[in-house]
Amino acid sequence: MMYSFRQRSDTRVYDEPLYGSYLTRVVGVAHPGVQEVVAAMDCDAESVISEMHAETVDDVRFFKNMAHHTDGLGLELLGGLQNFILCRPPADQLVSLEAGMTGAPTLRDTGYEYQTAILDWLIDHGQEPVVVIAPSVLADPEGVLRVLCEKLNLEWDPHMLEWPSGPKPEDGVWAKHWYTSVHATIGFGAPRPIRTEVPDHLRDLYQACLPQYERLATYAISAES
Which DSSP helix (H) or strand (E) runs through 48? Predict the structure, then answer.
């Protein structure tokens, strides 16, 4: 999704600006390259949040944040921003997540409990929840992205459907660990069957994630929205 928004002529993208702060606040995260990430970023959460809210000459700024990077910060940081939640079905996410980590994933690592907390915060503060389910984007990229742009009060830009392959200047230093697959893409690609089975050692985690994902999915936008 970040690469899609990067193709807009009016938009500047930022890759997980709160990641460094998260790694300094949460002990024992089993991610590769932790020290390299921390060394490369502003790890002061207040400074990063202030920058996210600062007025700039850019028409649109797109912050790709992982929901669990808000751990301990308070969701007031979402105030004054336009927000949408992107999530994947849990079986797909868990298998992918485990492949990139240096240890077993936890519920916190999946981000689902943080995404549902964000959903509740948006509702409680009078914002219409905008949830995008990854398979729906693959099934109809233009249709779903048109609706997303409308929800965000943005003009539709067909350039969002394609991007050049390979690394991007905005990628975080963690891209070499996590972005191999997306670097091979030039667009959203064909729909894939949704995985419904996980290895036995992930079964309990899958069961914990599933009801939270299903709640998020009730707010999902579609091309018919």
Answer: helix 45-53
Q: Is domain 2-217 annotated with CATH 3.60.20.40?
A: no
Cβ(37)–Cβ(15) below 8 Å: no
Separation of alpha carbons 224 and 102, rounded Å: 40
pLDDT at residue 225, as a whole number: 65
Sequence-ordered strand ranges (E) for 118-191: 131-133
- pLDDT for res 193: 86
The Cα angle at residue 195 between residues 194 and 201, in degrees rounded to 5: 160
Domain boundaries, the chain: 2-217
Stated pTM of the model:
0.95
Phi-psi region of 74 (alpha: psi -120 to 50; beta: other; left: phi over 0): left
User: In whole angstroms, what is the distance from residue 78 CA to residue 104 CA?
Assistant: 30
